[in-house]
């Protein structure tokens, strides 16, 4: 995020857009292909078209997305939804063409000055891909059943207008919680293909490709030398290139901070990663083995080749993607393969998160072709291979996806499962539910069903029960008939039995009020940037538990899968947030952006749906939710997310005013950020109580929904002391938090259901006069050392924990006194 004042300016600018002819200068200069612009006085015929039923609209979106992936008819389908979408934007708003190119290299060639935009892969690549008939094995390529009939989304709110009606719906939260899991299958059908975490089993092996990769940033003027010289065709070190040296680059890691070259730190454009992988002989010779390449996270846009053949492309930096490379690695005598990944970190108004490129053309001030990447979010746009790259195997008939939802009836735990198989029409499935001691407690057969667990151990959050985070294991055994005989596949999934529900004023887990006392985090650390790191991960969990935190929000993008697994194991509750951060311009609320956002939610739900720790989806952080298109945007986005997963509430995090926000009518829980006495009334902590109480009262009076204070905090340089407190000192951070706590303590007795400090630790941001080497609102430093506020919060969180302990045994006072290292 840019400083507050600048963000407000951006929003004002966007609100003025309808009056403007064209798009902001930044894009005009950049020569980005013409974009849909929201203009006043849109086609009256268009705005008269009635809105089709929400369910139909959703289904059209889903079908369009499916067909686009399959390469059929996407344009016309989306065009079909267009009038409705335009109508929803409100009178006088037009949403532009159905599918403007979203990613720069889908559009016409850029002008010479637009260095950051590089073209799509050259035509010969397309040819090579098709001729080989291999690759393209992302999830989209997998054959799937025909699209489901239109269905309505249970739990979705009917219309923005009637908050009263919505409140009544909300009062039936119990019914919602029961219906949700039952209707889960409806949502399921929208997801295409699975993204199970690659686990080893009797039938599956995995080989991690972490370590040193060859790396080159394409510093050429147009950033396209890599494509022009086809760097994917031969080892990077063998291709003579004037556009930059070939370096050793650790994976996982961001590339920005590992070197000494300032140009690489702020590089925008294509970088190339490459490494050779040696494969076990069986993988290359046994045609009954499926070999899959999996990339945990490549920020932002990635193109992947294996032995020079294009196998996958993916947009979005925080979610995994895969390519089935079996045919490639099994087609010759080679026992190794060369993996090349080109990654572009350029953000546009249509990416998630969005960004803009600003081209400076005044040659008296800037060199020729000068440009910078601007964003409206407050974290550094680290890039590279941020999570593990690995190869894994399955048999050719395999368990592709598993979906679990759970419920509780008296003391019986209900585990609903649905399993998708690929590679065979004729198969048998057996499922076994094992308890923590490995004893089978329930079993079933077939692709879908319900397992019943008498006297079930429920999955409880940390500090809510003396045995939190109880996990069962679901063992799935597949026996499939193939042309070559029977094939078996085995997959084991951890399962937590728990329920989630929302009432008018409470957030319930297993029917008991749950109060979120936790943090907001970032994936961020010295040197590695956003690169996954086990020691850092374990340290963070130890700090969370020391602090007595029971929850965090994945601000502002989905975090690594390994971290989500630890949340399941430790009982740390998660609000799982999409990369929808910094949606500040009207363009970023267009149908083009919405379409991508819907797909991101599909990918995110598909990846994280089985984590008991995930109790709510957050579709965005601080969007410009008072702009006109926001109503339609969030209505559609939230309804779609609920259709994907009717078992969890959905929210987004707002900083708009309660009167102007057009998205909040659709959320289940109001998440509100405020920085009283930090971004306003600097230094005047005496106004916090009044302003915060007013904030809560306004929101609650308007919507009667539970509220989470999803961010609050103050910038603090560790070691700065001032008494009386002054801004940036440790005393000021503590004082500000204490003022917030006084109001939170009143309102949590009514309808406030959580408080999440901004931020767990200091983190890197873009440079600005308001950021002293990053954002310093952490209660821990970036190196995870406590500031004074950490001790204050620790005392508070343990106190809150003791108050909300739900087991029959008494509150355990030793919780507070215990050594921080005994859990
Ligand atoms: C916010 C944003 C967060 C920023 C924070 C701040 O509201 O959600 O991304 O880092 O404020 O410190 O300004």
UniProtKB/TrEMBL annotation:
The keyword Ligase does not apply. One of its GO terms (biological process) is carbohydrate metabolic process. Keywords: Glycoprotein, Glycosidase, Hydrolase, Lysosome, Membrane, Signal, Transmembrane, Transmembrane helix. The chain crosses the membrane at residues 173-197. GO terms for cellular component: extracellular space; lysosome. InterPro entries: Beta-gal/glucu_dom_sf, Galactose-bd-like_sf, GH, Glyco_hydro_2, Glyco_hydro_2_AS, Glyco_hydro_2_cat, Glyco_hydro_2_CS, Glyco_hydro_2_N. Residues 398-498 form the Glycoside hydrolase family 2 immunoglobulin-like beta-sandwich domain. It comes from Camelus ferus. Residues 207-395 form the Glycosyl hydrolases family 2 sugar binding domain. This is Beta-glucuronidase.
């Amino acid at each position: 995020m840019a400083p507050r004042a600048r963000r407000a300016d951006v929003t004002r600018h966007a609100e003025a857009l309808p009056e403007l002819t064209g798009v902001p200068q930044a894009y005009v200069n950049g020569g980005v292909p013409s974009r849909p612009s929201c203009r006043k006085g849109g086609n009256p015929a268009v705005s008269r078209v009635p809105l089709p039923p929400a369910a139909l609209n959703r289904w059209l979106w889903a079908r369009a997305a499916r067909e686009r992936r399959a390469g059929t008819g996407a344009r016309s389908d989306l065009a079909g939804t267009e009038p409705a979408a335009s109508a929803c934007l409100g009178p006088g708003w037009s949403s532009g063409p159905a599918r403007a190119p979203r990613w720069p290299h889908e559009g016409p060639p850029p002008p010479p000055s637009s260095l950051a935009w590089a073209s799509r892969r050259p035509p010969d690549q397309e040819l090579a891909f098709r001729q080989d008939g291999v690759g393209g094995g992302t999830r989209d390529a997998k054959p799937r059943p025909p699209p489901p009939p239109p269905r309505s989304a249970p739990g979705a709110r009917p219309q923005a207008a009637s908050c009263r009606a919505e409140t009544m719906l909300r009062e039936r939260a119990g019914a919602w919680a029961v219906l949700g899991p039952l209707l889960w299958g409806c949502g399921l059908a929208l997801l295409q293909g699975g993204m199970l975490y690659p686990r080893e089993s009797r039938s599956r092996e995995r080989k991690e490709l972490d370590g040193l990769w060859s790396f080159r940033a394409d510093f050429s003027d147009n950033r396209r030398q890599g494509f022009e010289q086809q760097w994917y065709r031969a080892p990077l070190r063998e291709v003579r290139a004037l556009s930059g040296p070939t370096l050793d680059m650790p994976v996982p890691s961001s590339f920005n901070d590992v070197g000494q070259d300032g140009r690489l730190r702020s590089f925008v454009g294509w970088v190339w990663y490459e490494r050779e992988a040696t494969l076990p002989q069986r993988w290359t010779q046994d045609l009954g083995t499926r070999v899959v390449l999996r990339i945990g996270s490549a920020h932002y846009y990635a193109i992947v080749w294996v032995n020079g053949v294009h196998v996958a492309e993916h947009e979005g930096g925080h979610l995994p993607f895969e390519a089935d490379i079996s045919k490639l690695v099994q087609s010759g005598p080679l026992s190794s393969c060369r993996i090349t990944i080109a990654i572009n970190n350029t953000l546009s108004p249509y990416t998630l998160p969005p960004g803009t490129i600003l081209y400076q053309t005044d040659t008296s001030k800037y060199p020729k072709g000068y440009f910078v990447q601007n964003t409206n979010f407050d974290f550094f746009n680290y890039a590279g291979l941020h999570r593990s790259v690995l190869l894994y195997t399955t048999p050719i008939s395999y368990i592709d996806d598993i979906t679990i939802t759970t419920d509780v009836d008296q003391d019986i735990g209900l585990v609903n499962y649905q399993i998708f198989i690929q590679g065979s029409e004729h198969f048998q499935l057996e499922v076994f539910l094992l308890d923590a001691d490995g004893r089978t407690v329930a079993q079933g057969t077939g692709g879908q069903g319900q397992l019943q667990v008498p006297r079930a151990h429920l999955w409880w959050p940390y500090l809510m029960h003396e045995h939190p985070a109880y996990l069962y294991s679901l063992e799935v055994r597949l026996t499939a008939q193939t042309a070559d005989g029977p094939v078996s596949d085995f997959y084991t999934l951890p399962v937590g039995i728990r329920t989630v529900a929302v009432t008018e004023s409470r957030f319930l887990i297993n029917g008991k009020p749950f109060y979120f006392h936790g943090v907001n985090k970032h994936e961020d650390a010295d040197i590695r940037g956003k690169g996954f790191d086990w020691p850092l991960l374990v340290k963070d969990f130890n700090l969370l538990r020391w602090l007595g935190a029971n929850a965090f929000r994945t601000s502002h993008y989905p975090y690594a899968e390994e971290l989500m697994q630890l949340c399941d194991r430790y009982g740390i509750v998660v609000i799982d947030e999409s990369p929808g951060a910094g949606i500040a311009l009207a363009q970023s609320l267009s149908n083009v952006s919405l379409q991508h956002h819907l797909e991101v939610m599909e990918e995110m739900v598909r990846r994280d749906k089985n984590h008991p720790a995930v109790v709510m989806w957050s579709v965005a952080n601080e969007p410009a939710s008072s702009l006109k298109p926001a109503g339609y945007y969030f209505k559609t986005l939230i309804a779609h997310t609920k259709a994907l997963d009717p078992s969890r509430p959905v929210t987004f995090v707002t900083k708009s005013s309660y009167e102007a926000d057009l998205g909040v009518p659709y959320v289940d829980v109001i998440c509100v950020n405020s920085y009283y006495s930090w971004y306003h009334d600097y230094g005047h902590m005496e106004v916090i109580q009044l302003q915060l109480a007013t904030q809560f009262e306004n929101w609650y009076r308007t919507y009667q929904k539970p509220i989470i204070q999803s961010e609050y905090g103050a910038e603090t340089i560790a070691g700065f002391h001032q008494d009386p407190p002054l801004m940036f000192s440790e005393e000021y951070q503590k004082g500000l938090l204490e003022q917030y706590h006084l109001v939170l303590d009143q309102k949590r007795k009514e309808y406030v259901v959580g408080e999440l400090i901004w931020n767990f630790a200091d983190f890197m941001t873009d440079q600005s006069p308001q950021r002293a080497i990053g954002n310093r609102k952490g209660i821990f430093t970036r190196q995870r050392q406590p500031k004074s506020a950490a001790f204050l919060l620790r005392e508070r969180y343990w106190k809150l924990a003791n108050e909300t302990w739900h087991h029959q045994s008494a509150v355990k006072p030793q919780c507070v006194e215990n050594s921080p290292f005994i859990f």
